[in-house]
Amino acid sequence: MSGAPLVGITSYLEQAAWGVWQQPAALIPQLYVDAVTAAGAVPVLLPPQPVRGLACGLLDRLDGLVLAGGPDVAPDRYDAEPDPHTGAPHRERDAWEFELLRAALAADLPVLGVCRGMQVLNVALGGDLVQHLPDRIGEQGHQVAPATFNRRPVRVSRGSRLGAILGERTEVLCYHHQAVDRIGANLRPVAWSADGTVEAIELPGARFALGVQWHPEADPADPRLFRSFVDTLTGTSRLRGTSTNTLEEKSA
């Protein structure tokens, strides 16, 4: 993969155990690494850093940024009191990802936000979140059980960047109890589930700034989103590639 683009993936900072050790560790599900590699890029792990002002220099060395899924964004980031269902804040990760994202957008570095990453994108641009989606929609179909992805249909806006990649209807793997509510400045909602939940947002005019509420990294049978992201970094085009799970194919 000589000459392949470098893609930074933000990561967790968690207490972890391996061998005889149990200590804080930077980690990311291998699914993200595999998805970036399969799309033709080299993944670079970006653990939360306490050093402020580091993001610009770091991003100068990268070709793209993936904001990975993870814990709930601290509600005070969008001037809200925490809901009882909202998880404990991970302030070091919040600070690190918000700094990285702002620097990336300022430099027009391509950004793909996954689940929490979409929420970070929305909050960073002044939006807010629904802190517990079941209270809003009356059911738990977006997060049916711990550590269990649920496949759901989504409708995608005609004429959007995401629509060019996935078409107007597709199925996605969801695992989230929060969602975007008020949309951040200049962002555009571009995908919705049947209950009206916003499932994707993008920033028109950016080279690539797209957030999805679902987990494309967990669906290797449909690599289109990661491929399109990496294509932006390399100047190639593989839009609307083969998928095994679009609604059009299932109904054919």
Task: Please give a structural write-up.
- This protein has 252 residues and is an alpha/beta fold.
- The protein has a single domain, classed as Class I glutamine amidotransferase (GATase) domain (Rossmann fold, 3-Layer(aba) Sandwich).
- It contains eight helices and 13 strands.
- The strands form three sheets. Strands 4-1-5-6-13-12-11-8-9 form a nine-stranded mixed β-sheet, sandwiched between helices. A two-stranded antiparallel ribbon has the order 2-3.
- The chain is globular and about 45 Å long.
- Residues 239-252 have low confidence and may be disordered.
The helix content, as a percent range, equals 25-40%
Indicate the proportion of strand residues. Answer: 25-35%
CATH topology, anyone? Rossmann fold
Query: How do the strands of the widest beta sheet line up side by side?
Result: 4-1-5-6-13-12-11-8-9
Distance between the termini: 38 Å
Quaternary structure annotation: single chain
H-E string: EEEHEHEHEHEHEHEEEEEHH
Runs with pLDDT <50, length 5+?
A: 239-252
Number of domains: 1
Q: Taking all residues together, what is the mean pLDDT?
A: 92
- The shape, in one word, is globular
Task: Return the CATH class.
Answer: Alpha Beta
Kindly name the structural category: alpha/beta
CATH architecture: 3-Layer(aba) Sandwich
- Give the radius of gyration: 17 Å
CATH superfamily: Class I glutamine amidotransferase (GATase) domain
Total DSSP helices = 8
